[in-house]
Amino acid sequence: MSYPYVDEYVVDPIPVCCFTTRPDCDRDSQGRSYPGAVNVLFVCSRNRLRSPTAENVFRDWPGVSVASAGLKPDAEELLTAEDLEWADLVLVMEKRHKSEISRRFMPHLRDTRVVVLGIPDDYGFMDPELVEILQRKVPPYLRGR
């Protein structure tokens, strides 16, 4: 599936529900469909610090719907097969996250690209350094969609 470059795709209004609910939402707050959005899933261990920060930072990125999940049983939002089926792009924080997703969910990945961002679990939620790292590492993957 191909998508226009994000900087050439402008959506108004941003589909609020896609940022406030689980990623099974494909409609904006007025119930209109959101065609052409790139569904980006951020994954870390417990979905408490890194992936929710990433979701927060990129929630207003044009042409992108975002969600986040964690791999540990005590994650705030536990990663499901449905999350992976929804995602066009999965951005994981560490190499071990990619390995775990491949091990547990291989049949659900289809041709979904999984990218390792290489961000260690050294940051708090919305830590300015983490935000800066995300703003540097994530956009190249969004622009190329």
Mean pLDDT: 81
**Shape assignment:** globular
Radius of gyration: 14 Å
Structural class: alpha/beta
> How many strand units?
4
Estimate the strand proportion: 15-25%
The unreliable regions are 1-33
Strand arrangement in the largest pleated sheet: 2-1-3-4
Helix fraction by DSSP (H/I, runs of at least 4): 25-40%
Oligomer: single chain
Major β-sheet annotation: 4 strands, parallel
Q: How are helices and strands ordered from N to C? A: HEHEHEHEHH
Termini distance? 9 Å
Number of separate helices? 6
List the helices and strands and how they pair.
Blueprint: H1 17-20, E1 38-44, H2 50-58, E2 64-70, H3 81-86, E3 89-92, H4 95-109, E4 113-116, H5 128-137, H6 139-143
Parallel strand pairs: 1-2, 1-3, 3-4
In words, what does this structure look like?
The chain has a four-stranded parallel beta sheet with strand order 2-1-3-4. By secondary structure, the protein is an alpha/beta fold. Residues 1-33 have low confidence and may be disordered. The protein is 34% helix and 15% strand. Helix 2 (50-58) packs across helix 5. The protein contains six helices and four strands. Strand 3 (89-92), helix 4 (95-109) and strand 4 form a beta-alpha-beta unit.
Characteristics of this structure?
4 strands; single chain; disordered N terminus; 145 residues; alpha/beta; four-stranded parallel beta sheet
Short précis:
With 145 residues, this protein is of the alpha/beta class. Helices cover 34% and strands 15% of the residues. The protein contains 6 helices and 4 strands, in the order αβαβαβαβαα.
